[in-house]
């Protein structure tokens, strides 16, 4: 039955059927082929997966990110980041990296980050003399930092499937996210040096910097508040997501005063559409995962891998290669929901912390978002920059090597996934 599921899913993907629909249809085909189980199981599993309290965090974090990124609060964040970084060599490019770190604390979506930052920063970077392909590559790769800095939507999905604490995952993602940002800033410096582009010669105005910091402060402290609340157990991730929405609304209404009924209505619609897309994928993945579990595919796969590859480091390497291969053609959310139930038993068998596996999976599948030729952030960034896929891919490799180096470090150095 699982073989029929996989073949049907691949055939539907080749036919360019949306992933969520392909998962549901393939699950139905597998059950009909088996003939011993009722087709209503697909509907039952789809519905059951949505009945999860932690899953409520998804729409609220998405709404909070939409409210912040599309308002004056998001604009002040970018101004502050640009003011801090533009005097460094490669500072215009590094502003995208720092902006992704900051926006990661309020958004949790790499695709939304790539669109929001790219539309503002890429035209400015091109005016500074940077090639369009480099601007697109920088934006596409930096956007993935967003899913490592809490709150992170992929981490929530992994936690729901694997049973790992969402709070622990959020805390563990901070250090790898900062390390990836530092590596990308180094690449930006090197690229600017290679192109002969220096930093801004304008002197730093402490008063202007302090004013911009004050205006950006409400957004800058939000990720800090989230981490403190999670670390000391003041609230659950779902409750924090609701408070983040109220916080964003209060900041827009009382501090920046840029909230209108039309903007609120648009944010609600955008968040609702984004949540609907994610939930459809979750529901389709639930039916497919149930069939795989019914056929004991995770257990058999774990036994086969541990018997064939007896060394734990080889098993970790094999998992990384599989995730890199799947992360390119398959979107991040369905990849997590399909691979996590298979890899978690294998990780437990070789003594790999499920928390560490979660970070490996998020980084791995995040790389897939900018892996040519179908990477989502790669396509968005190339479109905004007006560069060809070839130009963007050529400039992508230094960033890609930094991400792979971080992936290897996280895979084999458990201390990098430390819980604060």
Sum this structure up briefly.
With 420 residues, the protein is mainly α.
Q: How would you portray this structure in words?
A:
It is a single chain. This protein is mostly helical and 420 residues long. The protein contains 20 helices and no strands. It is globular and about 75 Å long. The model has no long low-confidence stretch (mean pLDDT 83).
Helix- and strand-based class?
mainly alpha
Total beta strands? 0
Q: Report mean pLDDT, rounded to a whole number.
A: 83
The helical percent reads over 70%
Radius of gyration computed on alpha carbons: 22 Å
Give the overall silhouette: globular
The biggest beta sheet reads: none
- Return the string of H and E elements: HHHHHHHHHHHHHHHHHHHH
Q: Count every helix, treating DSSP H or I runs of 4 or more residues as helices.
A: 20
- Segments where pLDDT lies below 50 for 5+ residues? none
What is the beta-strand fraction?
Answer: under 5%
Give the distance, in angstroms, between the N- and C-terminal Cα atoms: 43 Å
């Amino acid at each position: 039955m699982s073989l029929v599921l996989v073949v049907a899913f691949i055939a539907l993907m080749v036919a360019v059927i949306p992933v969520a629909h392909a998962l549901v249809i393939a699950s139905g085909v597998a059950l009909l082929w088996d003939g011993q189980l009722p087709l209503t199981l697909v509907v039952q599993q789809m519905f059951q997966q949505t009945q999860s309290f932690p899953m409520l965090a998804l729409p609220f974090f998405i709404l909070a990110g939409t409210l912040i990124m599309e308002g004056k609060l998001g604009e002040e964040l970018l101004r502050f980041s640009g003011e801090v970084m533009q005097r460094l060599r490669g500072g215009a490019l590094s502003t995208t990296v720092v902006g992704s770190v900051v926006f990661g604390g309020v958004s949790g979506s790499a695709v939304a980050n790539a669109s929001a930052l790219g539309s503002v920063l890429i035209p400015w970077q091109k005016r500074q003399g940077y090639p369009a392909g480099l601007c697109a590559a920088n934006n596409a790769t930096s956007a993935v930092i967003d899913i490592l800095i809490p709150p992170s939507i992929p981490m929530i999905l992994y936690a729901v499937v694997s049973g790992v604490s969402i709070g622990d995952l959020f805390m563990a993602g901070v250090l790898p996210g900062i390390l990836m940002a530092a590596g990308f800033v180094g690449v930006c410096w090197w690229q600017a040096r290679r192109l002969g582009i220096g930093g801004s010669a304008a002197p730093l105005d402490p008063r202007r910097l302090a004013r911009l910091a004050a205006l950006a402060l409400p957004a800058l402290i939000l990720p800090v508040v989230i981490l403190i609340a999670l670390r000391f157990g003041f609230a659950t991730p779902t409750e924090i997501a609701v408070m983040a929405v109220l916080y964003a609304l209060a900041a827009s209404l009382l501090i920046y005063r840029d909230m209108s009924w039309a903007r609120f209505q648009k944010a609600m619609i955008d968040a609702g559409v984004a949540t609907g897309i994610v939930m459809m994928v979750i529901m389709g993945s639930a039916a497919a995962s149930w069939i795989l579990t019914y056929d004991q595919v995770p257990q058999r796969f774990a036994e086969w891998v541990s018997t064939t590859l007896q060394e734990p480091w080889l098993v970790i390497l094999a998992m990384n290669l599989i995730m890199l291969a799947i992360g390119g053609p398959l979107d991040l959310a369905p990849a997590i929901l399909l691979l996590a139930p298979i890899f978690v038993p294998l990780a437990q068998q070789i003594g790999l912390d499920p928390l560490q596996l979660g970070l490996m999976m998020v980084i791995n599948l995040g790389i897939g978002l900018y892996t040519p030729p179908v990477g989502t952030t790669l396509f968005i960034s190339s479109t905004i920059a007006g560069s060809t896929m070839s130009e963007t891919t050529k400039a992508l490799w230094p960033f890609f090597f930094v991400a792979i180096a971080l992936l290897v470090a996280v895979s084999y150095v458990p201390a990098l996934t430390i819980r604060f």
